[in-house]
Amino acid sequence: MNINISDSWKKVLSGEFEKEYFKNLVSFVRSEYHTHNCYPKGNEIFAAFNHCSFENVKVVILGQDPYHGEGQANGLCFSVHKGIPHPPSLVNIFKELQADTGKMYPVNGDLGYLANQGVLLLNATLTVRSSQAGSHQKKGWEFFTDAVIEHLSEKKQGIVFLLWGGYAKKKGSKIDQKKHLVLSSGHPSPLSANRGYWFGNKHFSETNSYLRKIGKQEIQW
């Protein structure tokens, strides 16, 4: 695994790269990518950071781990490459976006356009083995992404953190809620959404309302 991460994040996270857990993680990921099909592609593992510099982060959306189907994951949580059918969670995200903001349901499932506006689309685990959800959990990625959230919480102000589902909500303990806005809801997966825990959360409009209030540019969802 090559750590092809933007300079703005390298400065912030350089201490993590020297830690024992991260060295073990790199070794594990390299072995997995050599012996199995894994996602996303090696050069997309740190895509969330390369699309959205540390300085530009205004919103953080937390996912769990990448899509494990062929050609889906592109290094941004909940996002797929252009032309790939939308997975059920992304369908529900777009449905809520349409209901909340009136935006037409997007044809393209690549969320890079959000990342380029300052939305950090961060999975708690950045890699996964093909067809095996959660297969790279508890190998060190969680320590790394905890550090990302802690640095953002400590060094910045006025970030909107969107925590969707129980796994993301656990990360809320790393966030200083006096300095930042934390919005929580159920996960957009059908299991949660169909039980009434997702639709109607209005997170997209609430995010923009907060950004307006603190003098930041709104996200063009």
Give the key terms.
6 strands; Uracil-DNA_glycosylase-like_sf; 221 residues; cytoplasm; alpha/beta; DNA repair; 9 helices; single chain; four-stranded parallel β-sheet; Uracil-DNA_glycosylase-like; globular; two-stranded antiparallel sheet; Uracil-DNA glycosylase
Which series of helices and strands comes N to C? Answer: HHEHEHHEEHEHEHH
Q: So what's the oligomer here?
A: single chain
| Average predicted local confidence, pLDDT | 95
Largest sheet, described in full? Answer: 4 strands, parallel
Record the strand order, biggest sheet. Answer: 3-2-5-6
Contiguous uncertain segments of 5+ residues: none
Class based on secondary structure composition and strand pairing: alpha/beta
What is the helix fraction of residues, given as a range? 25-40%
Shape: globular
Distance between termini? 32 Å
Question: How large a portion of the residues is in β-strands, by DSSP E?
Answer: 5-15%
Number of helices: 9
Radius of gyration: 17 Å
What this model shows, in words?
The structure is a single chain. With about 220 residues, the chain is of the alpha/beta class. Helices cover about 40% and strands about 10% of the residues. The chain is built from 9 helices and 6 strands, in the order H-H-E-H-E-H-H-E-E-H-E-H-E-H-H. The strands form 2 sheets. A 4-stranded parallel sheet has the order 3-2-5-6. A two-stranded antiparallel ribbon has the order 1-4. Strand 5, helix 7 and strand 6 form a beta-alpha-beta unit. The radius of gyration is 17 Å and the shape is globular.
